User: Fold this.
Amino acid sequence: MPIIYPPINEEITMTHLIDLLPKAELHLHIEGSLEPELMLSLAERNQIKLPWETIEETRDAYQFHNLQSFLDIYYTGASVLCKEEDFADLAYAYLKKADADRVMHAEIFFDPQTHTDRGIPYEVVLDGLQAGFLRGEKEFGISGGYILCFLRHLSAEDAMTTLKHALPRANELLGVGLDSSEVGHPPAKFSDVFAQAHQAGLIPVAHAGEEGPPAYIHQALDLLRAVRIDHGVRCSEEEELVEELRDRQIPLTVCPLSNIKLGVFKSMEGHNLKALLEAGLCITLNSDDPAYFGGYLNSNFRAAHQALGLDDSQLVQLAKNGIRASFAPQARKESLLNQIDALSL
Ligand code: HPA
Ligand code: ZN
Assistant:
């Protein structure tokens, strides 16, 4: 599909296309967008002692070999978030980065238990996040909202308490999700919680098949009624599951840089996202925890493009998949899809 801008050479052309495409971000943990600069300034503002004192020390600590080694640092980092304004600053800072990458719709995960377990009221978290989003929405025109994630390493009772607390303001949320340490914490553990959330009109999504087996993807679909699978890349271990995901067009929110940093794939060249896209699955690209994994959405597009040789039509397909897989109102989806079509001759 030809592109309007002048083709200078292939690399610049691709970079421009990625930069120009209007995009949706569907898998972004707001706590994972906490950059070291903001982390250290909030630590000072709130008198929180961190194991790191400088930006260099903080970045040097980001040596991960699997999901758990990342989560340990991620929860420590999140401990600097205390007041409403901290959450507002965090959300606004993310939307500013998103705008620079031409993200026009963002569905953002947050982990209330990470904060309520430290004595921060749920209302402080949600009010702050909403204030930050509102500011970003006004300034950048980004649409979207928040998905409340339950921490799966904690009990189902804990998750139910969190849900009960959230229900009076359920209309302010897009949906519910499931994150944190996957192996040993199957989706089945949260069937009742998700059933109640579903009754309250919250759309279910779930992390599954990042480190966990294909069986966890089945459980997320069948027991939690997840309409999107976050990561889901281990589906390729089971042919029938790949066929089901393709036939039902269940979107997978794939996060390439995250997968490499956490050792889900040894190299970007070995990532299965292109094969899954070519097999007809609804693959979307996302940034997961960009402050920790080395890049926001366009960096994920670029890294996947460079390693896997995605062509123009595949880049366009990935961007369109993200918009179609979002929970944006139909008119917003059509407007964004039209903007993509307007880039092409
Ligand atoms: N997987 C599970 N839990 C998470 C992640 C992830 O990639 N990022 C933040 N919490
Ligand atoms: Zn994630």
Q: What stands out?
A: Strands lie at 23-29, 103-110, 143-151, 175-179, 203-208, 228-231, 252-254, 283-285.
